[in-house]
Amino acid sequence: MDKEPITLNGLNKLKEELVFLKEKKRPEIVAAIAEARSHGDLKENAEYHAAKEEQSHNEGRITEINDIIARANVIDVTKLNNEGKVIFGSTVYLEDLDTGEKINYKIVGRDEADLKQKLIFFQSPIGKGLIGKDKSDLVEIKTPSGVKNFEIKDVKYI
């Protein structure tokens, strides 16, 4: 069983989702199934089949989260002394040398990655291109949309 790196924040969000799914969602689904059962013939009961499908999705996600938590290797960057080096969990402040755009990313695990929130997977092209680099380094990264050139302006461990 491979350990999967995750930030403390990412682990806490998964635990919150697990509590919600088990304590709130699961009883709602059970109640919906009981309600649908009371309507009689189950073969042609759309509410029953929808509730059973929702139950299947919910239980699948609970299993998935339990598996992720079991494999979690929590990395708390606030406790690491790595001044200026890009590591898992660090936030990297970049300048796109082609456009002048300033942008920042936090390097996270697979289950936390969300580009809209500037959370990038450490195994993605940009994640791989940044890890191990230092503040002030110039970095050329091949991405699916072409080559990007960045200057690492700052690295924070928050």
Q: Per CATH, what is the topology of the largest domain? A: Chitinase A, domain 3
Q: Record the strand order, biggest sheet.
A: 5-4-3-7-6
Quantity of strands, as a count: 7
**CA-based shape:** elongated
Q: How many independent structural domains?
A: 2
Which CATH architecture of the largest domain? Roll
Calculate Rg over CA atoms.
Answer: 22 Å
End-to-end CA span: 29 Å
CATH class of the largest domain: Alpha Beta
Could you describe the largest sheet, including whether it forms a barrel? 5 strands, mixed
Overall mean pLDDT score? Answer: 92
The helicity comes to 25-40%
**Strand residue content:** 25-35%
- Count of discrete alpha- or pi-helical segments spanning 4 or more residues: 3
Keywords:
158 residues, alpha/beta, Helix Hairpins, Chitinase A, domain 3, 2 domains, 5-stranded mixed sheet, two-stranded parallel sheet, 7 strands, 39% helix, elongated
Q: Topology, pairings included?
A:
Blueprint: E1 4-7, H1 8-37, H2 46-71, E2 72-75, E3 91-96, E4 102-108, E5 119-121, H3 125-130, E6 138-143, E7 146-156
Parallel strand pairs: 1-2, 4-5
Antiparallel strand pairs: 3-4, 3-7, 6-7
Helix pairs in contact: 1-2
